[in-house]
Amino acid sequence: MNEVSSKKGPFDSGNITGADMDAERRVTYPTEAFFSRDYLEDEKKHLWPKVWQMVERETDLPEPGDWLTYDVADESVIVLRHGDGSLRAFHNVCPHRGRQLVSVPDMLPGKVHDVRGSGRRGFTCGFHGWGFDTDGNNTFVLDPQDWNNELTPEMTCLSPVKVDTWGGYIYINMDPDCMPLGEWMGRAGEILDHFELAKMRYKWRQWAIYDCNWKVAIEAFLEPYHVAGTHSQLLRYGDYYAYSKQYGLHSVSGYDTRDENYKMNESSGTTRSGKAGLDPRVSTYQLIKENYETVNYSASTETLVKAASRLQDELPESATPAEVIAHWMKSAKADDAARGVTWPEIPSDVMAEAGLAWGLFPNQNILHGVTFALCYRVRPYGDDPNKCIFESYALERFPEGEEPETEWVYADPTGENWGAVLAQDFANMAFVHKGMKSSGFRGPLPNPHQEQKVINLHRNLANFIGRGAPRLLGD
Ligand code: FES
Ligand SMILES: [Fe+2]
Q: Where is the Rieske domain (predicted)?
């Protein structure tokens, strides 16, 4: 099933297969995808108009008439909550002579993230006044007799865009022949459904413009292989060895251990015990506290951190790591229940398969927990392959009525704005982008076990763009 869904692009020859990846074969891939304007033009033709892409959380368009714009590369789409409660999406262009129906300025630091509003009953083009209803039908043409009254509704309506929802997100696809969103999400969607992302709400949301290609930015969050080199302070309380695995279009990573004897599936996600050899009651707390505080108060919750702080008082010194985790989860679940936050019941085999974080093709990342998620999205910035729009946001399950009000905030990439750990990630990006341009760079050597998500991104991109496929090393 995975192979079928990963070959929906127009090109599928000469690429490595999912089986090659599962066998963790060693590969490299060309760097053209990061720098070339031709490649960027091909993304505009073959990638963005063909893929399901996340627009926004559904909760941002709660009422009929609420609307917003979503822009990627040269495309602009209007998404709107219709009077009947369903979502509609249209290309943001007037069919007369092509003015944007809603003017969307370039995204500007501190100024423009998107354009949105409420109470929308239709659209009137600002150029010659043509009108449209919320179904996209034309409602007004000035002087239709000048066309001999031969303009048809098909000629004068807005161009529809497919829209659907998953996990509390609004997704669009500009390809009228695209596969359904459920099929696109595949097994990744089935697994993440257990975490009930739709019931989570924004805790914070920030964005920035970075000096690197969008793929350099998303790749910085696809693998924990960089933790030892980039976030060495985190090694005090935890090991960050990771596995990664392709699921067709999408892929997952999770914590792993280098020693087969210490494999512990249940702790491949964020709620795991601290470093082997330390008192797990103490190290589990230290690990989660440090992660929470230095990743901008995300990737965990206040409830989980507080419950972890009590482990030393509530458990004997003899408690094993597995007992510590079980007790921690039980008491955090009870604490949350007492304040009106219900945990989803997730079968242990699903929890094990769910790992730590998912890369959803092409540009969405979700690091999920039972009651929270830390997420990223990256888009190209206009026509410049050397820049991107980077967004990160934290979701959390809140007691009803206690969800915070948030909006997109532009935040320069400092530790003060994003937390020390994310600032360390940002510090690499521009220099990865610059470094790969060196004539002395022989091509990436991604780790076949720990960085498979990066390889899978390039494998799937090649299926859409028609070049850039990873190739087996030595071939
Ligand atoms: S371009 Fe919209 S009415 Fe002319
Ligand atoms: Fe990182």
A: 52-172
